[in-house]
DNA sequence: TCCATGGAATTGAACGTTCCATGAGAGTGC
DNA sequence: GCACTCTCATGGAACGTTCAATTCCATGGA
């Protein structure tokens, strides 16, 4: 009998082309194809490499993620966890950040899976992630310094990276912007434009970045020998911002420059400025912070501080993968610089 | 030697608890645990069911996605593909839609994977998806009637559902809002408030929904015996919208109501209205369309038409899963109703 | 001649689940 | 008592890949 068994050329039931089909076509073994696929150059010759590549191309082979994932214990997926508030409210750069994350992950041949929590237990999502290993790592954004999500992930050994500084006893896997430093060019610009009377309107809430922006604002002013009166530093939600702004503008010695804690607030301020018959950028300078799309929809457009989302996304993904590859690496956090965006509002 | 080899009770190298551990703990077979897991009630008794559940709980068992996926040929993941423009521009509900999708997918025990394309070849992403089967189905948003993505997916047999109507020769797996119908209550409201002089400012581009909103606007007016003058129907990008609005407001017989094609445009219009010293909602009525977060950031807030994103997301996911389960089911598309949102702008 | 060396490739096993075919045991009908 | 059905349960195989160990073969030194 010339051939006892010839299962080789049948495309197998699933119809999809697998690694063994490629192996057969290239005249090598399964494992060799796998090695080529994973670029383990020390295990194959230049010649076989090209034969395998040719076979893969001609068969239109694509490795099966589930199989790779099962065997290698890697999902090739990165999770992104966001709070509902980030979506509800118009945190200007959330969308840009999403796009940046999709790009950053796909650049390293990974996929981005998005998570939110809906019920009370914010950690439930993470318990599932840890147990089922559906993602190799998690990116947290809008994290507080003492983020319970980060703490949980650290305890359970799931790699993560956080957009926002973390407490010293947590692994320092974070990327953040230097909010305080970002304020300086903004203030410099305003002062050199002749402004001396300032007001600050920030978002309510105790997050680190909120305090830091205000602090940076104060420090920057101080460098010019200026200070902001205590009654001109205000906080609040949407409605409060409107009210604050109206009252500020009604004062006898009304501020000539209103510095907002973020673009969304600045947009509201601009609106209120107009609604009382003044003009932003001419009668009152208004600045934001984010540098996102919101600033383009106001009239005039916002002068703001741009957060380099693409860079941040890349760094976060990079930190995640380093942990996946090398185990827990506890490097220092990273502060990325911001840059000022000139619009018409200041 | 007392022990030659005893791999039995050792939790196996990976350290994770698997289906066989549960089986051992419950005193049943692997397959029975699997059956319980998948709710195949005809294959186990009530008694074994509770024993298995108890064992799973006490061991903290979570099924391994990769293994399930490999064997069952289901990834339990749904992809969402978006164009860069949806992220760059402030398509108001993109974020809300994201949140709704995350919720809708997690409600049916699936995950959401987000895709964009970066290079020229928009279909490259889909070629990968088809070949690697990383997702069971794809959700398209902002789809044109003759969407090439939908056509490609239909050809390659990957289930999909589209937010936006599709050409008749494509599988009718779509959900959409009735833009024309949505305009009617808005116009009714304006007319009953006494408005007779209308203008319309829409986004540029030939998308179906843009034409339909304008058409709905016209029809609704006609029902009141009114019509909009040809020179008061305008289109354009951001800058053009500003210019258009200024010119409209400068006319001797300026419109008393400006109907915008979406919230982003309406926001710009409101801004311009204020910047020329008028007040939206008092001197000029302004309406939007989307009913998203943008409308809350203008002063006054926008009167608009709310798109029921949660409902749409649910329906899209549902359509996807029906295809995955039952094969290609070619039901009719679904038009979901909108509702008017009352803000201060009209 | 013999053995160590090392590059290139191969084979058996394993990852954790579900599919498939089969089996044990109890109940039913004749 | 026997065949039949029905419920519940089982073990082997398979999904497609990578890990770990092994083989093959040419080379070179002792």
UniProtKB/TrEMBL annotation, chains A, B:
InterPro entries from the UniProt entry: HTH_LacI, LacI/GalR-like_sensor, Lambda_DNA-bd_dom_sf, Peripla_BP_I
PROSITE patterns: HTH_LACI_1, HTH_LACI_2
Alphabetically ordered keywords of this record: DNA-binding, Transcription, Transcription regulation
Protein's UniProt keywords contain Translocase: no
Stored SMART domains: HTH_LACI
CDD domains with a match to the protein in the record: HTH_LacI
Location of the HTH lacI-type domain: 17-72
Protein name: DNA-binding LacI/PurR family transcriptional regulator
Natural source organism: Kineococcus xinjiangensis
């Amino acid at each position: 009998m010339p051939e006892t068994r010839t299962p080789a050329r049948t495309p197998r039931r699933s119809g999809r082309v697998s690694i063994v089909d490629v192996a057969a076509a290239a005249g090598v073994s399964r494992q060799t194809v796998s090695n080529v696929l994973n670029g383990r150059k020390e295990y194959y010759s230049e010649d076989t490499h090209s034969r395998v590549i040719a076979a893969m191309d001609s068969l239109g082979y694509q490795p099966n993620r589930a199989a790779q994932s099962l065997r290698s214990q890697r999902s090739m997926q990165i999770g992104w966890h966001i709070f509902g508030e980030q979506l509800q409210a118009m945190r200007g750069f959330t969308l840009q950040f999403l796009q940046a994350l999709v790009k950053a992950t796909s650049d390293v041949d990974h996929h981005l899976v998005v998570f939110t929590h809906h019920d009370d237990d914010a950690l439930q999502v993470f318990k599932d992630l840890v147990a089922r290993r559906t993602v190799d790592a998690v990116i947290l954004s809008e994290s507080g310094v003492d983020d319970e999500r980060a703490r949980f992930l650290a305890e359970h050994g799931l790699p993560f990276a956080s957009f926002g500084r973390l407490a010293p006893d947590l692994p320092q896997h974070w990327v953040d912007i230097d909010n305080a430093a970002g304020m300086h060019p903004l203030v410099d610009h305003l002062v050199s434009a002749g402004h001396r009377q300032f007001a600050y309107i920030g978002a309510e809430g105790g997050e680190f970045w909120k305090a830091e922006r205000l602090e940076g604002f104060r420090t920057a002013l101080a460098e010019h020998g200026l200070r902001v009166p205590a009654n001109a530093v205000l906080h609040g939600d949407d409605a409060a911002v409107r009210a604050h702004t109206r009252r500020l503008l009604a004062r006898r010695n009304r501020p000539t420059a209103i510095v907002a804690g973020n673009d969304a607030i600045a947009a509201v301020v601009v609106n209120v400025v107009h609604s009382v018959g003044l003009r932003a950028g001419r009668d009152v300078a208004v600045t934001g912070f984010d540098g996102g799309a919101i600033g383009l929809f106001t009239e005039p457009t916002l002068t703001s501080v741009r957060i380099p989302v693409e860079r941040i996304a890349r760094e976060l993904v990079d930190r995640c993968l380093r942990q996946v590859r090398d185990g827990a690496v506890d490097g220092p956090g990273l502060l990325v610089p911001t840059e000022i965006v000139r619009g018409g509002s200041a």
